[in-house]
């Protein structure tokens, strides 16, 4: 069976020969999909299983020992992976003078094709693409596999808009620092998404894939990669030395959280970038929207909170020091009645000043004694006058109702005595209050 023609033959013969080409006696080539530096991809039909597949052929001009070994490694690497966001590999072998690789056919377009018709992509769609691509990379990284060539052309969108990462191992063809700078037509696609450590000649790891994915996300949002210069070498220097311009400063309406996270993906040091698993989770939970987490629903308590019992008679309380509010942390507090008959001083009086509350209360009580004694004497004199007036001027009925002049019950239950804002016994410190050092 005749082999596919070279590029010069294809222009001359058209596509009539496709129906005559049967690769390995099983895969009938239908039409070309794409061509790279080392291989070409065809749409084909698996005549054994009756399904559409993609067949990748290693170009005969590059079928040396090194190229075929790397092509085989690509097939073996991709065959180890099975994930909804990775292109599946079905078969691998040799046919005539070239090797072939049979893969899942993705009915859709690449992100590169999307960017040709749509300069910028809506953040909602970008977030979905980023999360799915990161999930696929996480599956590869768990197997110890690094893609090394994440770029729009290698990220496919199927008919439902789901991401499929393809061309595992192609990066070894076009992204090797020893060959990328001299490969014709390869440096532009590589330099735009190359991680700084790769530009410095270091080995790629999983963090390198995440940097490249960050470049793709940036381009989808802004319409251009984060770094681009006139030459590939100048672009590589920008990856190493130049900080990226935040997306929001480019006039794109995304949340500050999304912008900051993307800058983290584009960090110059590999250890500063999030992993593929973290990126996938971050986009999956809609953290890119930047909205605060919703408050938990209020669940009423089955048992109402206990309410302190009201005292028998309203007893207004005041701080021990005039002008000090009886609050704790800005919230009014209430003390339950003490078992003893004598009320205790409010705790707020202790924090009112640097002087201990007991010493302050005693000093004030001593200073108040003349005022309290005068008040008591005045009260007694008033009651005596009332009594005398009742006796002298009331009609003689043979009996008289005389009130007990003792103020003790009034001071114990009613309002505090005049001149005693603390509410304790007149002129006496609160003996029930412990010392500060107890």
TrEMBL record:
Domain of life of the organism encoding this protein: Bacteria
Binding site residues for ATP: 56
Residue ranges constituting the Protein kinase domain according to the UniProt record: 27-283
SMART domains: S_TKc
Biased segments, Acidic residues type: 428-438
Chain spans, region Disordered: 309-366, 396-438
Compositionally skewed regions (Low complexity) per UniProt: 320-333, 346-356, 414-423
InterPro entries according to UniProt: Kinase-like_dom_sf, Prot_kinase_dom, Protein_kinase_ATP_BS, Ser/Thr_kinase_AS
EC numbers: 2.7.11.1
Record field: compositional bias (Pro residues): 309-319
Keywords, comma-separated and alphabetical: ATP-binding, Kinase, Membrane, Nucleotide-binding, Serine/threonine-protein kinase, Transferase, Transmembrane, Transmembrane helix
Keyword Transmembrane helix: yes
TM spans (from-to): 372-394
GO molecular function: ATP binding; protein serine/threonine kinase activity
A Pfam family recorded for this sequence: Pkinase
Enzyme class, UniProt record, top EC level: transferase
Protein's name according to its UniProt entry: non-specific serine/threonine protein kinase
Organism encoding this protein: Streptomyces nitrosporeus
